[in-house]
Specification:
Elements: E1 4-12, H1 18-26, E2 30-34, E3 41-49, E4 52-58, H2 70-81, E5 86-92, H3 96-107, E6 113-118, H4 120-125, E7 128-130, H5 132-139, E8 143-145, H6 154-166, H7 179-188, H8 193-199, H9 203-211, H10 215-222, H11 228-245, H12 249-268, E9 269-271, H13 279-287, H14 293-311, H15 313-333, H16 338-355, H17 358-374, H18 376-389, H19 398-403, H20 408-414, H21 421-430, H22 440-450, H23 453-481, H24 502-536, H25 547-554, H26 560-577, H27 579-591, H28 598-606, H29 613-621, H30 631-640, H31 646-658, H32 663-673, H33 676-703
Parallel strand pairs: 1-4, 1-5, 5-6, 6-8
Antiparallel strand pairs: 2-3, 3-4, 7-9
Helix pairs in contact: 3-12, 7-9, 7-11, 14-17, 15-16, 16-24, 17-20, 17-24, 20-32, 21-23, 22-23, 22-30, 22-31, 23-31, 24-32, 25-26, 26-27, 27-28, 28-29, 31-33, 32-33
């Protein structure tokens, strides 16, 4: 039997339990992507219910529909322009009055709607009693009680949503905004007939938005020739209301909404012992305490950091060994040639370099989902906001920056916890300045070659410190130049503490892991193949020696080291004459003022894929291995090269710290911003900044007599 199709949009405030309900209703049948043109996550789920094939859309969590953020625009535009058959507004019953503001705005969009009183058990435990039937009569929509954590009310919610979608007659919902505002609405409404037809928004709602000076609606209406007079009339009406009532019309309209909500709350809600401290209040006396809050938060972040990058090291090592075994198997079972090299070095090596980060991604989002689900993440942002605000960042930015010391990829993905797009972008752009673990092999080799054991710790600490200082400076610069405007105030509702469901945590981890592999993996595969081509072609090169004859002669000798040395020398010469080598010589004039030669240029070019590749590339150029067992020989080779000295080595470490994020990070930036513009900007600005700082270090050191 063919099933009828219905679409259900889930709306609600952040922390109202919407994700839990979405997971309960859809199970594993979910699809995650981005809304076209914006960096706002789009979730769709599917469910067969009786004789209906339901598509359930999880709208982004938002406190209102006032168009101050992409989330608000997406939510309201989807409700009207995509015309879901019914909207389910999920309300945290324990924060009833605050959550009702969004409900009234959704009702004014005149779409079929159901109200879900979620966390009804928490409300009852707090002594909050809500008269469901009276609330339904006052709002003119069905009301259903749910407890998402226990899967209670799910069937009734779907039943009610399906029934509401089929109803043809609906009770209209209107808030009286006072005589003066209502007169202004009455004058504007007749001018908006064409806008109503083209934009599909209700005429009364459009008039309200014009009075509220909603830029998105004003720009949309101005594009409609028949409605040009409406915007001019609205500007005149706003001025008259401002003069007559002595306040901005937007604030007046919001005030009437809050008055309506206050009266409705008093009518349908009774609270026993309003002054009693809740369980969450008692915990917050410790966790958000002025003296204890920050140390507790830092301790928890230390645990998260170690969970991600210590516990994650074990499965990461297993994956690395698996990738290595796969590469070895391909090498043993394929004939020599370009295809073998492409598969072993390009495809397996390139994609394998991304897959090894998967355990960290999974563990990171396990920790984030756990902190968010319990309600602690909101407290963490509150605790850190005062510190982060001084450097132009949001309180939530601290977590991605901290995780950036392990790896920029999961750290940038962690920036999704920031709702405001400006805060998210600033955090994403400065996170790569945190010195990730992939840079550590480079520091280790150079410090061992040019700095004694007594200075090694101080040198390494200074590199990490410079990264932190630069992140602070660049955050300030970006806030002042690229992301100007008033700083968004730190307003966040502190949800009650609760035990998150295992299902929601697992879904969160699964979604991020799949997206990471699908998006970043495919981009990295393509670019890895390009890098392989550049480092392996042209195949016909003029060698300084007859390596074939020398290697054949060496095979008769008992010492394997002779043959291996000749093979590495040949590989070094071939790399020098490859397209990548030619790039190194081409960029040598640009990096010469930093004290770098073409060999360092080749290494930096190759390290674009992953920073630790610099060590293996230099190992190939200097005809030594790049593994741990050969680190000493590479150290000696670098120390013996007259092109190097301690100043050059330090400038090179600075450059590696700052310049373009690795390929995996760039791909992740593209994924998280939904734009190549910011990915390329991140690569470009950091490379320019690296050149400037390395130039200051090298040339300043030379002037100070340190370049010998």
């Amino acid at each position: 039997m063919k099933k009828n199709k219905l679409s259900i949009a889930l709306a609600g405030n952040p922390n109202c339990g919407k994700t839990t309900l979405f997971n309960n209703l859809t199970g594993a049948r979910q699809h995650v992507g981005n809304y076209p043109g914006v960096t706002v996550e789009k979730k769709e789920g599917y469910r067969n219910f009786k004789n209906y094939a339901l598509t359930i859309i999880d709208l982004p969590g938002t406190y209102s529909l006032t168009a101050y953020s992409p989330e608000e625009l997406v939510a309201r535009n989807f409700v009207v322009r995509e015309t879901p058959d019914v909207v389910v507004d999920i309300i945290d019953a324990s924060n009833f009055e605050r959550n009702l503001y969004l409900a009234t705005q959704l009702l004014e969009l005149e779409r079929p709607m159901v109200l879900a009183l979620n966390m009804a058990d928490v409300a009852e435990a707090r002594g909050i009693k809500i008269d469901d039937q009276l609330l339904a009569r006052r709002l003119g929509i069905p009301v259903v009680r749910t407890v998402g954590s226990r899967k209670q009310g799910m069937e009734e919610l779907l039943e009610t949503a399906v029934r509401t979608a089929q109803e043809t007659q609906r009770t209209s919902f209107v808030i009286n905004y006072g005589r003066d505002v209502e007169e202004a609405i009455g004058k504007l409404a007749p001018l908006l007939a064409a806008a109503q037809r083209q934009l599909n928004f209700p005429r009364r709602w459009l008039a309200l938005k014009l009075l509220e000076n909603d830029r998105d609606i004003i720009e949309s209406i101005q594009k409609i020739p028949e409605s040009e007079g409406a915007t001019a009339a609205a500007a005149e009406a706003r001025a008259e209301l401002q003069q007559k009532l002595g306040d901005d019309p937007e604030l007046l309209i919001a005030d009437f909404r809050y008055r309506f909500l206050g009266a409705l709350y008093r009518e349908v809600v009774t609270v026993q012992d309003e002054d009693a401290l809740t369980f969450s209040d008692k915990i917050d006396k410790v966790l958000t305490n002025r003296a204890l809050g920050l140390p507790i938060f830092l301790g928890l972040m230390w645990l998260v950091f170690n969970l991600v990058f210590t516990l994650g090291a074990y499965p990461q090592d297993w994956i690395e060994k698996g990738v290595s075994l796969l590469g070895s198997w391909v090498g043993q079972h394929m004939a020599e040639g370009d295809l073998k090299s492409l598969l072993a070095d390009g495809v397996i090596g390139g994609v394998g370099g991304v897959i090894v980060f998967l355990p960290q991604v999974i563990l990171l989002f396990f920790a984030i989902s756990l902190l968010e689900g319990t309600g602690y993440m909101a407290r963490a942002a509150f605790i850190m906001d005062r510190v982060m605000y001084k450097v132009g960042l949001h309180g939530k930015s601290f977590i991605p920056l901290l995780l950036g010391f392990g790896c920029s990829v999961p750290a940038i993905m962690g920036a999704r916890t920031l709702e405001n797009p400006r805060d998210r972008l600033v955090t994403i752009l400065v996170t790569p300045l945190m010195s990730c673990s992939a840079r550590l092999p480079v520091y280790t080799v150079l410090i061992a070659a040019f700095f004694g054991e007594q200075r090694a710790g101080n040198v390494l600490f200074s590199i990490y410190l410079i990264g932190i200082i630069l992140a602070i400076i660049m955050a300030r610069v970006f806030r002042s130049v690229l992301f100007t405007g008033s700083t968004e105030p730190f307003v966040m509702e502190l949800p009650p503490y609760r035990i998150p469901t295992l299902k929601s945590i697992l879904f969160h981890m699964w979604e991020r892991s799949i997206l990471y592999l699908q998006k970043a993996g495919t981009i990295i595969l393509a670019v890895s193949i390009i890098i392989w081509f550049l480092t392996n072609y042209p195949t016909e090169v003029q060698y300084s020696k007859d390596y074939a004859a020398l290697i054949a002669q060496a095979e008769t000798l008992p010492q394997d080291e002779v043959k291996e040395k000749l093979v590495r020398e040949q590989a070094g010469e071939k790399l020098g004459q490859s397209y990548a080598g030619q790039v190194g010589r081409f960029i040598e004039p640009a990096i010469a003022p930093l004290g770098f030669d073409w060999k360092m240029g080749v290494g930096l070019f190759a390290a674009f894929t992953a920073k630790e590749v610099l060590v293996s590339t230099l190992g190939t150029i200097y005809s030594v291995g790049a593994g741990e067992e050969d680190a000493a020989s590479l150290k000696d080779a670098l120390a013996a090269d007259p092109a190097y000295n301690p100043l050059v080595a330090y400038a090179l470490m600075i450059f590696v710290l700052i310049y373009s994020p690795c390929l995996a990070t760039i791909a992740t930036i593209k994924r998280e911003t939904n734009s190549w513009k910011w990915a390329l900007f991140s690569s470009g600005y950091s490379t320019v900044l690296a050149w400037i700082i390395a130039f200051i270090v090298y040339q300043g050191g030379k002037l100070g007599g340190l370049g010998g």
